[in-house]
């Protein structure tokens, strides 16, 4: 293990979270991958020379236990990346199954809240400040039919980001968000591998390409760095210009 900061990435076993964890590890930080998929988290941690912790972000006790485990092993979390998120399905609001809505709210909103609450409390107790980066989506600001349930949670994450930044500033804790547009990950692979669906998405993007996880990770690292020392409460889009259309 390296001698950098203790970094916790939720949902870090794959996709954007995996890329972010890899980038922090490459920068010399002590990375912990928090994921409810114990096997995938352990595999990713081994590949990155990181640490894995089993965590269900929808369960406050699971979160508290996982954060306590990390703190006991590596010291207080200094950087938190709230990346865990799901879409869980899609469809018009009038016919969307309530269980799909509830699942997305539980993971994307409740999960971001529970992990922020537990980690921020530890940061305050340690008295050394901290950095929190929430992974949002441009869907919070640009609606797509059939994804209203997902986009509502991301708009709520943006609101939580701003409130957290305001409340935690006095403790030296900065809170920001990153809002990707469409990104090719295991979660979106089915859509992205469909030529017609991919072309439809790309037609909405001025830079005419779907994002990759490598487009997202550098901004997360920047917002967690001292170079972003006067930035808090911001949600920055990485969308190839899609919000301009």
Automatic annotation (TrEMBL):
Keywords: NAD, Oxidoreductase. SMART domains: PKS_KR (SM00822). It comes from the Bacteria. GO terms for molecular function: oxidoreductase activity. Gene3D superfamilies: NAD(P)-binding Rossmann-like Domain. SUPFAM superfamilies: NAD(P)-binding Rossmann-fold domains. Residues 5-181 form the Ketoreductase domain. Belongs to the short-chain dehydrogenases/reductases (SDR) family. This is SDR family oxidoreductase. It comes from Actinomadura rubrisoli.
